[in-house]
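Help! Submission page says 'invalid entity' but I think these are all valid:
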Amino acid sequence: MVHHVGLDETFAALADPTRRAIVARLAEGEATVGQLADPFKVSLPAISRHVRVLKQAGLVRKRHEGRSVHCRLNPAPMQNAVAWLERYQRFWTQNFDRLEAFLAEEEPE
Amino acid sequence: MTTQSKDLSLEIDRVVNASPERTFQAWIDPHKLQKWFAPSEEMTVDASVDLRVGGKYRVAMGEFVVEGEYHEVVRPKRLVFTWQWTNEPASNEMLVTIDFSEHPRGTRIRLEHTLLANEDARTQHQTGWDELLARLETLFADAD
């Protein structure tokens, strides 16, 4: 089953600083949940919950190997999110450039 | 999923060389909007505005049409309105908040564009983003 993930779900998953840190760590390579928990002052179950949110948003894939669970990053949904941000950044920047030009040309009332 | 979903926002902060009143006017007067509210000069802009809380606006930038409803209107300080591409039924509702404040060089405009992490929107519009992004790419590419 293909689970299509909307951008808002990606954004919601990335709106949390711990989850962003997990994503940053996974960008460097695969890690177990235990390794992911290492730098944080939170419990293993708490990290597992964050990983689950990231997995549901399609950002993390899990691989079971014996008793350990390995996580790796799936950047595709994030690329959509980043593309969304870039497009609206560009859209508003260009609109603001035109607003500035318009205000410069317009006769003050 | 028990996790509280959150909205995510893009923020833009700009200073323009005009008074807050004149800047605010440029955002709410349809004739003025027609002169600038599109990323490209080549795009024909058509705007209509019903400026009151609960009132609707519509801006067509070429084939791209955005519509929404005003949530807050505080002249010349603040505008809050919803943002929805109506030429794209699959697009999520967004919210735009603009704060205008006095600045030594004129007016500081702080704009926040928020994609609403709305449960209904999520279930209704699971697909469609890729197509929307592809089409929006045309809008933004034209603007270069």
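Support: the input was valid. A stray whitespace character was the problem, and the output above is from the cleaned input. Chain A has five helices and three strands.
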